[in-house]
Amino acid sequence: MREMVCIASTLQVLWWSLLLGLLLEAALRAYEIRLWAIKDYGAIIHEFDPWFNYRATEYLAEHGWKKFFTWFDHQSWYPLGRPVATTIYPGMQITAVFLWRLLQEVDSSWDLNHVCCYMPAWFGAVSSVFAGLLASESVRGERLDFSSAVAGGVAARAMAVVPAHLSRSVGGGFDNESVAISAMCCSFFFWCRALRNESSWPIAALAGLAYSYMAASWGGYIFALNMIGLHAGILTLFGSAGNLYAAYSLFFVVGTVGAMQVPVVSWTPLRSMEQLAPLALFGVLQLVQVYKLLPKHLKQLPLVALGAVGVVLVGLLIPSGIFSPFSARVAALFVKHTKTGNPLVDSVAEHQPGSADAYWNYLGKLCLTSPMGLVPLLLRRSDGAVFLVALFWVTYFFAQKMRRLIIFMALPASTLTGAAASFLADFAIANVGTEIGATLNRPPVRLLRILLAALACYGLIPQIVEFLDFCEQKARRTLSHPQIVTKGKDGSLIDDYRQAYTWLKDNTAEDARVMAWWDYGYQIAGIANRTTIADGNTWNHEHIALLGLCLSSPSSEAHKIARHLADYVLVWAGGGGKDDVGKSKHMARIANSVYPGHCNEEDCDLYGVFSDGKPSKMMEASLIYRLCGRGALDPRHFREVFVSRHRRVRIAEVLQVSEESRSWRQRNCDAPGSWYCPGGYSPGLLELFNPNSTGEEALEYREAYAARVQEQWKEKPRPNQEGLPPGSYLDSCRGCSMSGKTLTCTHCRLPGSPSIHSSLEPESCPLPQINNIQGRLQCEPKPNAHNIPPGGYQQSCKGCEMKGNGEETLFCSHCSSASGNQVPSSFEPKNCPKPAKLDNDNGKLVCNGVPNDAACPDGPYLKSCQGCHLSSGSVVCPLCRRADGRQMEASHSMETCTRPARLENQDGRLVCSGALDGPYKKSCSQCQQTGDFLTCQCAQSTGKFLESSYDISRCRSPAELHNLEGRLTCQGVPNGRRLPQGPYLETCQGCHLMKESLTCSHCLNDEGLQVESSMEVASCVSQQLKPENFNGVLRCLRLSAEVGRRGAWRGELRSPGAMDPQAMLQALAALDDQTLLAVITGTLQKRPELAPGVVNGAVPDLTYAPADSLTKRRATGRILQVNSGNGVGFIDCPELKAVFQTDVYVHKNQVGALPIGTEVNFAILLSKDMKPQAFDLQPTGASQFMRLELRRLDDLDLCWRTPGRILEQVLEAAESDEFNAAVSASDVSFLGWKACFKVTQTQKESMADDGASAVVADGYWCATLGPLLLLKPPALSPHLAPVPEKLIRPLGAVTTLWGTLLLNEPLKGQLGQKRVTSLVCGINSVASVGLAALTFMAPQRTLLAALTVQVAGFAAWQARSVVC
C-alpha cells in the first residue's frame, strides 16, 4: 500500500510538473508573439480608444486617485465636457499606474508609455495560463492526471496564439479588453474550481474578486456574470458535485459588492435588465435554502407558489422603471444589423453580424478542433465540462450576432481543443472502465492504442505547424499594425496621422477647438492636447448628430455651425473607402435621426458616391467632401492650413469664428462646489435651431435648411405604381412604373452607392419574376436544363442550357460575379476534358483541373494556364486566363525565350518575361542575374562604369532594358488610355488611371532609378493643374501664375501663349529694377521648383552666394557614412530628404574627426546637379560630442600644454559672444574642450593600452574642468552655489594640476611602455564616472563628485607603480 501511495505521489508531481511546464511555455510564447508591433514600430499606443485610456492613465499618475475620480474633462465633448469618473472603467488605468510605480522601484528607466504598451502582452500571457487551468479543471477528476495536464497545456498554447485573442492584446493595444479577458478567464477558472467538491466552495470568493476586477475594467463584465448565472441555473436543474448554493451566493455577493464600488457600474447589477437573470437566480437559491430550513408544518406551502410570488413582484417592478431597459448594443444582439433603431450603433463596423469567413479568420483550425472537444466533455458531465459546453454555445450565438464578440470565442475554442487532446491522451494510456476493459487493457492492445495515438499525433503535426504559422502571420502582418502609423509598400513608415496631430500641437493655440469625426477625438486629445468636439465614448447621441449635421451639410450651412464650435476641422482623406468621405453616410444618417429632413429618406440613400466614383448631389455639396480635397473650399469660410506628406490628413481653419461663442464658458454644476459641472452650448449656436429666434444668422440658416429640405423632398422617390410585375425588386426599388412595355424604376438600391435608375421589358423574361441585382432590374432566370455538364458552376449560375446546332456550347444567362451582378457566360465543354470540371469564376464559365504536362518549362504562367504541353518547340496552353476571367488558347516558341527568361501569362497571352535582350548590352558588361535581379557594370557618357541592378520582372515585353547614364532602366512600358495630359508623360511610363487615382509604375527620379508613384488627379483638374514627375513623385504642376501686379503686364503673364519667349524677355528687360525684382521674386514664390536653377545660373558667374546661406536655414542630421576612399559621405536629415528625396552629401574634409552617428548642425548648399551638400558641420550638443569622443580615445588630440595656456584660451572664450550666462553647465564644459583643442599639438599616437586611454580620459576632464572652477563663469555659478567659497579655488587648482600630469604622463611614454593591469583600468573608470558626475549630477553633489575624482585619481596614480 505504501508503494502505491508513493507511486501515486510521484505521478502527481510528474503531472503537475508537466502542466506547469506547458503553462510556462505557453505564457512565454503568448508574450513573445504579442511584441511584433513593438519590434516593428516601437512602443506606440495603437488605434483610437487606447489613446484615451493612455491619457486617463497619465492623468491618474500625475494627479492622483482623488482628482481622477472627480475629473470633469472639459477638453472633450466641447462644449459639454465629459464626467470621466462616471463614464470610464478605471481598472486598467489603476493597474497601469500600479505596475509603473512598482517597476520604477526596480528599474527607473520604465516610463508610463512603455508600461501601457507592454501591458496587453503581459495580460495575454495571464489569460493563456488561466485558459489552460480552466481546461485542465474541466476534464480532471479529484486528482490531476496525464490527460488533464495535456488538456491544460494544449488549451494554454492555443489561447496564447489564437488571433481572436491576439486581436485585443497585442503590444501597444492598450484597450480595456486586453485586461478584462484575463480577469474573465481567472473568474471562470475559480468558479469551476469552487464546484469541484462540497468543501471547495470558499474559492468562489476568488471568482467574485476576479469578476469585480473585470467589472472595473470593461463593460463586458455583464457577459461573465450571466455566463456564471446560466451555469448555476443549469446545475440547479440537473445537480452539482459541489455546494452550488454556497458557491454561487458567495460569488454573487463578493462580485456584486465589488462591482458596485466602480462609479460607472454603481447600482447597475441590481437594476439592469441585462443582469436581472443572475439576480433572480440568487433570489431563487435563497428562497430554496430558506424553504429547506422551514419547519415541517410550514413546508406544506408549495415552493412553486413562492416562485410565482417572486415572478409577480418582478413583473410589477419592471414597468415602474426600477429596472433599466436593454442598451442599444445589447439590443443589437437580438435584432438584424442596422435595425437597432440607433444609427450611431449601426455605424460601427464591429457591430456587423459574424460570418464563416470571420470564424476562419480569427480562429483558424480551432474551428475544426473545438467541436471535437464537445464529445469528451459531454461524456464526463462534470460541472466544469458542463460550463465549457454552455460557454461554447453561448459565445457562438453572440459571435453570430456581432462580429466583435468573436473575441469571446477564443476561450471556449482553446479549452475545447484542449479537451479533444485530453481525449486522445486518455485513449492512449488511460484504463478503460467498461465491460470490454479487460480486453482493451491487455498489454498488446494497450501498446496498440499508444501506437495509434502516436500515429494520430504524427499526422496532426503538419496541421499544427500550419496553424501556428497562420497565427504567427496574423499576429505580425495583420494584427500588429498600430493604424496611427503604417508602412508603405517599400517598407517606409507612413506617419501622416501623428504628423497632423503634432502640427496641431505646435501651430495652434492651447485652447484651440478641433472638429473631427468622433473616431479621431481620442487621438487629437491624447497627442495634440487640443479640445475635441466628440470622441469614441459616444455617450451623447444628439451631440454626435450635431457634429454629423455640420460635416454632411452644404459648406455654407456647415460654416454657420462650425464657427460656433471649432477653430479647425481635421479630416482623414486617404481614399479607399476608409476615409471620411466613405464614413460620411453614417454622419448623415446619425444627423437625420435628430434633425428630420436633413436627408429625404431615413437611411440617407441619396447621399453617397456612385460606383463610377461620381458623388451624388448632396454629397458633392457637403463640407466633408470638400475638406477631403475632392472639391473647392469656400475661401470666405474655410482655409486649408495643413496637408500631410502622403495627403492622408487635411486640416482647415475655420474663418469668421464667433468670438462670443468661443469665450462662452457655461458650467451647470449639480451642487455648489461640486466637481460635476457640465457645459452648455453658446447662445449663438442655440439660436440656429430655435424656431423663435430672430437673429440674422439664425434666420439665414433656417431659411437655407428649409429650402434644402424642400428641394430634397422633390427628389424623394415616389411610391411604386400598382399592378406592377411581381418580383423581389419591389422590396428594394422605388419610383417604379410601367411605360408601355417597359418597367422603369427611378431608384433601385445598390449596396455602397446611392440608388440608380434602371429599366427592363418584362416580356423578355422567361419567367414572370423580376429581381434587383446590384441596382439593375434583371429577369428571374429559368431553371438549369437537365442535359448540362456537371460542375460547381451550377450553384451560382442559372438559366444554363446547351446551345448550337450540335448543342456544343454551354450558355448560362445568369452567372453571379464577385460584385453581386449576374452576367451571361458561355463555354464549349469539349475544351474541358475530364477530370477537369466547369466552374464559375467571377461571372465567367471556366474550366478547372486540366493538368499541365510535366515537360513544360517552369514559369508563372503555370498558375493561370491549364492543359499546357509542348508541341514543335512551342508551349501550347489551351486554357489561359484573361484579366476579365475568360480562358483562351495561347502559345509561345521556346526558341525566343531562353533561360533565365520565363514565360508569363499576360491577359491570356504567353509572353517572355525577364529576357536579357535589349540595347543595354551594347554599353553594359559583366551582367549577372540573381533571382529576378540583373546586375551589370554600365558605362556612363564620361567613360566611367557604374554598378547597376534592376528587377527584370518589372520590365516585361514589349518593353526593353536600356542603359541611361550608367543606370539600367526599362523603356517602352505601355501606358493606359485616357490619361490626363502633363509633363509627367515625358519621364513616366506604365501609367494607368483608375477612377481618380493616377498610378505610374516607372517614374524616373534624379538618381536614374525608376520608382512607382501615384496621386489623386481630381484636385489637379479642378484647380487647373497638370500632373508632373518631381524626382520620382507625381504631383500637381500649376499651369499659370499671376506673377505681376500691374494691369497690362498681369494680363500678359496670365496667358503665356500670348507672346513668344523672346518678346516676353524684352518686356521684362524694359521694366525698372524694383518692378523686375518684384516680378522675379513673385514668380519664384509661386514656382519654388525653379529657384535652384535660377541660383545655379547666377552663382558664381554673375554674383556670389550671400553669407546668410551658411548662417541661416541650417539643418540638423546624423552622419550616416563616410567613404575614406573617394571622400564621399552622407548625412541623414528627414527634413531635407522630404524635399530632395535623397540624403545630404558631405565631403570627408567637412566631417573631420567626427565619428559616424554624430548629430550635427550644418549649412546647406546645392551641388551642380541640384543636390543638397553639407558645409560647416557643428556637433549639436556638447554632452553628446564628449560621449562620442570618449569612445575614440585611441584617436584623440592630446592637450599637453600648460594649465596657463588652457586658462588663457578659456578667458578668451569667456569674452566672446558664444559664452554667456544662459549657457548650461554641459555647454560650459564643451567650451573647455574647445579651448583644450586650440592649444593641442596633433599627436595621433597608437594607444593600445586601455589603462593609458583611461588616464588620458581623466586628464581631459580634469584639464577642462579645473580652469572652469578657477574662472567661475556665470553659467557655472548656480552649480557651484552649495560649495564653500574657500574650497572652489583650491579645488580648481588641484584639478588642473592633476589633469595636466595625467595628460603629460602618456606623452612621456612612462605608461605606454608598461603593461597596466585591469586594476588600474577599473580605478580610472571610477574616476571617469566621478568626473562625469561633476558636470551632469545635481548641484548639491558637485563637491562630493569632485572629491571622488581626486581620491580615485590619487589611488590610480599610486597603484600604477605597485602593479606595473
From TrEMBL:
Top-level class of the enzyme under EC nomenclature: transferase
GO molecular function annotation: dolichyl-diphosphooligosaccharide-protein glycotransferase activity; metal ion binding
Native source organism of the sequence: Cladocopium goreaui
InterPro entries tied to this protein: Cyanovirin-N, Cyanovirin-N_sf, Oligo_trans_STT3, STT3-PglB_core, STT3_N
Similarity comment text for this entry: Belongs to the STT3 family.
Cofactor(s) the record lists: Mg(2+); Mn(2+)
Gene Ontology CC annotations of this record: endomembrane system; membrane
Pfam families: CVNH (PF08881), STT3 (PF02516), STT3-PglB_core (PF21436)
Record field: catalytic activity: a di-trans,poly-cis-dolichyl diphosphooligosaccharide + L-asparaginyl-[protein] = N(4)-(oligosaccharide-(1->4)-N-acetyl-beta-D-glucosaminyl-(1->4)-N-acetyl-beta-D-glucosaminyl)-L-asparaginyl-[protein] + a di-trans,poly-cis-dolichyl diphosphate + H(+)
Membrane topology field: Multi-pass membrane protein
Record protein name field: dolichyl-diphosphooligosaccharide--protein glycotransferase
Annotated ranges, domain Cyanovirin-N: 792-912, 919-1036
Positions of transmembrane segments: 84-103, 115-134, 245-264, 276-294, 301-323, 378-398, 405-430
